[in-house]
Amino acid sequence: MKAVRDQRKWHWLDYVLFLIRTIWITNIGYLIFIGTTGLNKWILLLWAISLYIIPHLFYRPGLIKFPKYVFAEVLLTGSAFIYLSIQYEISETYGFLFWPMLTVAYACQVKPLIWLGPFLYISIFFAGTLAGDLFADEGFFARFIDTTIFYGIGLCLGRMTIVNNANKTLIASIEEKNEDLEYYSKKIEELTIKEERNRVSQDLHDTVGHIFTSVITSLDALPFLYRADKKEAEKSIKEISDLARDGLHDVRKTIHQMSPMTHQTLIESVQELIVDFMKHTSTDIKLIVEGEATKVGERIKFAIIRCIQEGLTNAKKHGQATIINVTISFNQEELIVLIEDNGMGFSELHLGFGLRSMKDRISALAGTVEFYSKLNAGMRITCHIPTAKEVSLS
After folding, report:
1. Helix (H, G, I), strand (E, B), or coil: what is residue 221?
2. Residue 91's pLDDT band (cuts 50, 70, 90)
3. Residue 189's closest CA among 301, 337, 295?
4. Residues 337, 307: Cα–Cα separation, whole Å
5. How many whole angstroms separate alpha carbon 198 and alpha carbon 104?
6. pLDDT, tens digit, for every residue of 216-272?
7. Domains in the chain, ordered, with CATH?
8. What is the pTM of this model?
């Protein structure tokens, strides 16, 4: 109701009714012009022009005042109907009420007009009937039903306009809220990625600092150790080499985690990660994609990449796995990531820092992680991520 009361632009139905009203008043004017004479003709013509123009002073594009329009319409049309009933005393004068009653009903859609409209309509109908002494006319009830039908049509058209305007307002509100949600989702995503990169940058700083400090310290001590014990020096060189190699791997992994992936799909990023891991660890890794691969948000993609990285590292480092299967299943409501290996497994599984971080990442996306391991039977990690909740839970 508020939508109709506050509207300032005409609905297409307003233009249709205005056109019909124009045709109706033109026809009335023509009948008056050819059917009456003398002063009465000019009185009726002036009356017809007034009841056409005055109501629309309050109901026009850019200005709609329903109460004033209804009362102007009822006053002018009602008084004209009563005058015609007195003057001519014929049942055809009821036709004069049809279109005005339709437009009155169309406008009477807000309280108290919705209750006042029928009362005004009945009052005009019976006042004109009484003034023209038309109760005895055999067509009285038929005219009453006809006029009531026109009033009902106008009422239905008005309700249709209300529903249409309310739907437009609702759609506009939903679109506005969707834009806000998308904006905040992008902002949260940017902040999350920025925070993650800052953390990874710190990891890189700590890793590089630790590696170079250890290597430099060992290299400084190596000449003295070589003169004192040649075999011990050779052993130290081997340890320095292993340390540098492990450090290089950690740095590469950290840099890879920091690299932007916005230009790649999830599957492309996972394939690149697997190829790089196989190249440096000589591990046989198979990627299986189930369902139709759909686009996922950057936050989900980033979390999955980090979890697969951790899963591969855990399988190789702690399980000594030689074969790893990674399965990504795309469903309507969730994304499932399964990491299985043929490593040593564990009789009792304790979550280290890496696996706890994996669980935290998936939980932040309203998902769940399941860990299963058995001694000499490898390990299985299953991640369930509800893609539909990404925005609301960001």
Report:
1. helix
2. low
3. 301
4. 9
5. 68
6. 777 777 787 777 877 777 787 887 777 777 777 767 666 665 555 556 788 988 998
7. 2-178 (no CATH), 261-394 (3.30.565.10)
8. 0.42
